[in-house]
Design brief:
Helix content: 25-40%
Strand content: 5-15%
Number of strands: 7
Number of domains: 1
Oligomer: single chain
Shape: globular
């Protein structure tokens, strides 16, 4: 199995990897307060965020800055119907509304942040993993996005 420069296996897409769920996460009030679908979608989001780190730079999700430059952040990922329904089997295709409600549940609980909403341009929204669930006091709301503490929209 191929390894990166730190000795970790490069498992993206191989099906041989694992996802570390810490005791801190599993015993937190935020995690225990999630619905069953919320827990399943959180694991899917964590897998997506981790697998993106192994993609070539030019294939990672990006946002366009006002000057036209493309910015790509660490652990940014997209989540859409094809992923939650076909790849992970969490929601049936007819349950798009339930899936979006569950994504909003993860945002409100502090597990993910919306970097960019794709609703206006009919593109995939971009999300990133967040540590706000640990204290959940530092959320900043800006229009249609909920950003992590200390972040400006589109920055990681």
């Amino acid at each position: 199995m191929a390894r990166d420069k730190y000795g970790a296996s490069r498992w993206a897409g191989s099906g041989r990897g694992y996802l570390h769920l810490s005791h801190e996460l599993l015993h937190s009030e935020a995690y225990r307060g999630l619905s069953a679908n919320g827990k399943a979608l959180l694991i899917a989001c964590m897998m997506e965020a981790w697998s993106v780190t192994f993609q070539p730079e030019h294939e990672r999700p990006f946002i366009e800055k006002p000057d036209g430059e493309k910015e790509r952040g660490a652990f940014w990922f997209t989540m859409n119907r094809g992923k939650w329904s076909d790849k992970y089997g969490i929601f049936p295709k007819a349950s798009q509304h339930q899936a979006y409600n569950t994504i909003n549940e993860l945002i409100e609980a502090g597990f993910i942040c919306r970097v960019m909403s794709g609703a206006v341009g009919r593109t995939s929204s971009i999300y990133r993993m967040s540590g706000r669930w640990k204290d959940n006091k530092n959320d900043h709301r800006d229009g249609n996005s909920i950003m992590c503490a200390g972040e400006a929209q589109g920055q990681s």
